[in-house]
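[Discussion] Sanity-checking designs against the backbone

I'm trying to build intuition for which residues belong where. Below is a C-alpha cell string of 326 positions. I'd appreciate it if someone posts a full sequence so I can compare it with mine line by line.
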C-alpha cells in the first residue's frame, strides 16, 4: 500500500511587485536583485487577506481536482510560516471556510520545509490506515512579516498558496521520505518577537522585532549543503540512483542556491522546476505551487520519479521521492 497525491491546487494574489518598484522604496537595483537572487517579481495579498484566505482558495481547487467534496477530507494540515494567529491553528480556520466538518485540523511549523514535513506526516496517517483523505496546505502572506525597509530581506519573499490531497493510491505514490532539523541554527532565520520569548510590547514594535531577520550568507551555505544532501539521501533510501530521477522540485529561495546544489549533484537544470523569478520565496507555498505549475505545463508525467526537496528556518530540511501517479 502506498500514499500519493490525488489532487492539487494553487492560488496567487493578483498584485505583482516588480524589482523596479522596490528601487523606489529601498536602496537596491533591479540588476542587483536579478544577479544575486534571480527574482524578478513577487505577488502580494491585499491588506485584509490572511494565509487562511489564500490557503482556502488553493484547497478548494485541490479538493475539486481530487474529485472529492470537503466533507470527504478527514484531516487538514496547515504548514504556514505566516499563520493567521499564534492560535487557533490556521488549519482550523481553513476547515471552517471549507465546511470540511469531518476533518481533524492542526498546524505544523517547519518554515520553508513545512510542505515537506506536512506531506510526510500525511503519508504516515494514510499508511497507518487511520485517515483516508488528508489535505496539506502551504499558504503564506509573508508580505505582512517582511520589514519593507530592510533591503536584505524585502526583495526575497512573496505571497501565495498551494494545497494537495493525499490518499491511498493503487500505483505509484510516495516511495521514500527524509526529514531533519538543527535547532542550533535557530537564530540564523527568525521572527524574534511576538511569541513567549519576546511578547509584543512598545519596544518590540519600535525595534521592528516582529519582522523576518536573516543571516543571508549562513542560510545560503546551509541551503546549498542540505539541498544536495537531502536529494542524495532520499534517492538512496529508495534504493535508486540520481540517474533514475526525472524531475526535481526544490524550495524556491534563490537561483544561486539551486544552481550551486545542481552543480554538486551534476543534475541537469532542464529537469528542475524553477519559478522563483515570478514569485520569489513563498516559504511553505513554494513547493506545492511549483509542483502544480510543473504538472500544468506537462513537465511531470505519470511514472516520473520526482523529488521534492526543501530547507528553511529551524533550521529544518526534508525531501519526498514520488513515483508520480496522476
Ligand atoms: N540590494 C542591494 N544590495 C544589497 C541588497 C539589496 N536588496 N541586499 C543586500 N545587499 C548588500 C549587502 O548589504 C552587502 O553590502 P555590504 O557588502 O556593503 O555589506 C552586499 O549586498 C552583499 O551582501 P551579501 O549578504 O553577501 O549578499 P549575497 O550575495 O549573499 O546575497 C542573499 C544575499 C540574497 C540574502 C543571499 O545570501 C541568500 O539568498 N541567502 C539565503 C536566503 C534564503 O534562502 N532564505 C530563505 C530560507 S527559507 C525560510 O525558511 C524562510
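Best answer:
Here's mine. Compare freely.
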Amino acid at each position: 500500500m502506498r500514499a500519493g497525491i490525488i489532487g492539487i491546487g494553487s492560488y496567487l494574489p493578483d498584485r505583482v511587485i516588480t524589482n523596479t518598484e522596490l528601487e523606489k522604496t529601498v536602496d537596491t537595483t533591479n540588476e542587483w536583485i536579478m544577479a544575486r537572487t534571480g527574482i524578478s517579481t513577487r505577488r502580494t495579498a491585499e491588506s485584509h487577506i490572511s494565509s487562511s484566505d489564500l490557503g482556502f482558495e488553493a484547497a478548494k481547487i485541490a479538493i475539486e481536482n481530487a474529485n472529492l467534496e470537503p466533507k470527504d477530507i478527514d484531516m487538514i494540515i496547515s504548514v504556514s510560516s505566516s499563520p493567521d494567529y499564534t492560535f487557533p491553528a490556521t488549519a482550523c480556520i481553513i476547515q471552517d471556510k471549507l465546511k470540511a466538518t469531518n476533518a481533524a485540523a492542526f498546524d505544523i511549523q517547519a518554515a520553508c520545509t513545512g510542505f515537506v514535513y506536512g506531506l510526510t506526516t500525511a503519508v504516515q496517517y494514510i499508511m497507518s490506515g487511520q485517515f483516508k483523505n488528508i489535505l496539506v496546505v502551504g499558504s503564506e502572506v509573508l508580505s505582512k512579516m517582511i520589514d519593507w525597509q530592510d533591503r536584505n530581506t524585502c526583495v526575497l519573499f512573496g505571497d501565495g498558496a498551494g494545497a494537495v490531497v493525499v490518499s491511498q493510491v493503487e500505483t505509484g505514490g510516495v516511495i521514500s521520505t527524509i526529514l531533519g532539523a538543527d535547532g542550533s541554527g535557530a537564530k540564523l532565520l527568525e521572527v524574534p518577537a511576538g511569541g513567549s520569548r519576546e511578547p509584543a510590547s512598545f519596544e518590540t514594535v519600535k525595534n521592528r522585532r516582529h519582522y523576518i531577520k536573516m543571516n543571508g550568507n549562513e542560510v545560503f551555505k546551509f541551503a546549498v549543503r542540505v539541498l544536495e544532501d537531502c536529494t542524495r539521501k532520499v534517492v538512496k533510501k529508495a534504493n535508486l540512483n540520481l540517474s533514475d530521477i526525472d524531475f526535481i522540485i526544490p524550495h524556491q529561495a534563490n537561483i544561486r542556491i539551486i544552481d550551486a546544489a545542481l552543480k554538486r549533484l551534476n543534475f541537469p537544470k532542464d529537469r528542475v522546476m524553477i519559478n522563483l523569478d515570478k514569485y520569489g520565496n513563498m516559504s511553505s507555498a513554494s513547493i506545492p505551487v511549483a509542483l502544480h505549475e510543473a504538472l500544468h505545463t506537462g513537465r511531470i508525467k505519470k511514472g516520473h520519479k520526482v523529488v521534492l526537496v526543501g530547507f528553511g528556518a529551524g533550521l529544518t530540511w526534508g525531501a519526498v521521492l514520488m513515483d508520480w501517479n496522476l
